[in-house]
Amino acid sequence: MLARTSRSSLQLNLRTNQDNPNPTLIPTPSQSPGGTWDDPNLAPSPFYPNMDPAFLKEQQLAGSGLNAMGDGGGGYGLGHSQSMNQGGGFTMNRQDDGRLQLEQARAYYKTRKCITWTRSKLLLLLANTILFGYAVTCTVIMTMSWRGDPWTKPYLDSGIMMIANHNVLLLMMVTAPFGVLISLLGFVGIFAQSRKILSWYTVLLWPLFAMITSIGYICFRRSHVSLYQKLKFSWINEYTRDDRLVIQNALNCCGYRSLGDYPSYDLHCFPRAPLPSCETKFLQYQQDLLTNTSSAAFTLLPIQLLVMLVALLCSNHIDSLYRTAYPITPKLYTQ
């Protein structure tokens, strides 16, 4: 039990530091006759064993000093942080409670985050940059197509795609921004060196892969399985008058097989209009659109698989530490 006494009982035995060319005065607390420390705030840390007055006296008489207790036992010996003066007093400095080591460790790891670029981190950054590039490209193309820019017509006309391929269009509009968000999450995890964020990044790459695969499969199957019969059935039974009118204006045609075959008449399409039928143009449009879309999706699949493989292998080695957290710092005994 530490005896709590007043500050006035603290004796300041001033001594000079012989190792320093510029001598400094170091206060040393005294001990009470009962073998306890007068000031509890200057009591030795409980990390240091056998700190009773008899043990200290033996070490002083033996001439070995407290450094004989060892400085290499993980920081639990006295070492250079505590020493005895010639008057029998006990000297403590800032390193006794571990505050100096903690500050140095924090500064070290803060610097390490900025300068540590391992091979895994570079590969992960390259793969995520590729993902960000094609995700942003697809997002820009789909946005301009939705706005109806002139260069996107007629093959990327959102009006025709919404009527003839609405499920594919909606899936592409969701997939492209989702890829951008995943890549941004990857950049955050890379530069923050956060394994937790990179774990979510790796998991979210799988739904993105499934979306790209779905787009390619739907377009490939639709373009190779009875496309002509499906378009004819949809024109007659599924499309409304407004839907047929949108397709006719976009492709500059009138009627499906002829001017009188389920047309939607307006100022441009009428019984004697000098316009071709929509059968050939609409079929060619669908074949080109579905083929190009499926080819683009299947081309991105190997790249996406490569990004996923790099994320799986490198996300847990974002820095040179092989632990999952920073080293555990002992509790500070600063009463």
From TrEMBL:
Membrane-crossing segments per the record: 122-148, 168-191, 198-218, 295-314
Compartment annotation: Membrane
InterPro entries listed in its UniProt record: Tetraspanin/Peripherin
Keyword annotations of the record: Membrane, Transmembrane, Transmembrane helix
Ranges for region Disordered: 1-43
Membrane topology: Multi-pass membrane protein
Compositional bias per record (Polar residues), positions renumbered to this chain: 1-34
GO cellular component terms, A-Z: membrane
Name of this chain's protein: Tetraspanin Tsp2
Source organism of the structure: Linnemannia schmuckeri
